[in-house]
Amino acid sequence: MTASGARIVITDLFPWAIGVVAFLYAAVGHAGATGYVAVMALAGVAPAEIRPAALVLNVVVAAIGTVQFARAGHMRLGLLVPLAVASAPCAWLGGTLTLPVHWLEALLGAVLAWSAVRQAGDALRKDQERVPQPLPRALPLWQLVLLGALVGLLSGLTGVGGGIFLTPALLAARAAPLKTVAGVTAPFILVNSIAGLAALGPALEQPMITRKSVILAAAIGGLLGSQAGAFQLPVRSLRLVLAVVLGIASLKMLSASMGVG
């Protein structure tokens, strides 16, 4: 197959790929920015278009996920509000900065890889159902504010959704059960993505964003994924999906740190 022929196949499959990414990420309360970036880079989308397009898709999927997880009763405003209030201005600030962050991406990629392995290991443990799960513990307000600010800044600097950083942090801190973490992460990503779009300003006028088939695919994938995650999938399955999502994010971060893609 010629290079041009391969490009045609990728272009035809592009909305489908976006929909699959949206489904996987939405199931765990994420919106899919890292996956969209990978798909768009593979499809040969111009680098200037990738970041705003990923953020717009994030807004669509995160908005749907917010409604779905709230309907299922998994949202906790006491956890969400300090995280989001601290994160939004830092995400905007990070989005306005152009810093060499290769070393940061390498470090974050390694941390996400470790988190993915841990989630997969927890999901595959045969005795998981019989082992008592540690009770959630309430994080002090200052810790939530600090975590939100840090995640927002990292999100803005690296151009990916804050969910891939927030979810492992909240689970490691035992701040809430997995489905509650997902119910907090979806609106958190929504706020951060809107802040990131505001920081980009004129860069929003990109043709990739306005393709109705891409937006529709993301919306359908986000709707089905968040429905499954909020109402249907057991925690074990969600951990496996989360491991896949974190693994994709890890590969994206590590490849970016090496200047690949």
Structure description:
- The chain is mainly alpha-helical and about 260 residues long.
- The chain has one domain (about 5-255).
- Helix content is about 75%, strand content about 0%.
- The chain has 10 helices and no strands.
- The protein has helices at about 5-25, 35-40, 45-70, 75-95, 100-125, 140-160, 165-170, 180-200, 210-230, 235-255.
- The chain is globular and about 45 Å long.
- The model is unreliable at about 1-10 (pLDDT under 50).
Secondary structure elements and pairings:
Blueprint: H1 3-26, H2 33-42, H3 47-71, H4 77-96, H5 102-124, H6 141-158, H7 163-172, H8 178-200, H9 212-232, H10 235-257
Short précis:
This protein has 261 residues and is mainly α. It has ten helices and no strands. Mean pLDDT is 83; it is low at 1-9.
Tell me the fraction of residues in β-strands, as a range: under 5%
Tally of structural domains:
1
Number of discrete helical segments: 10
- Regions with little confidence, pLDDT below 50 for 5+ residues: 1-9
The N- and C-terminal alpha carbons lie at a distance of 22 Å
Order of helices and strands: HHHHHHHHHH
Question: Helix coverage percent of residues?
Answer: over 70%
What is the residue-averaged pLDDT? 83
Tell the overall outline.
globular
Annotation keywords:
mainly alpha, 261 residues, single chain
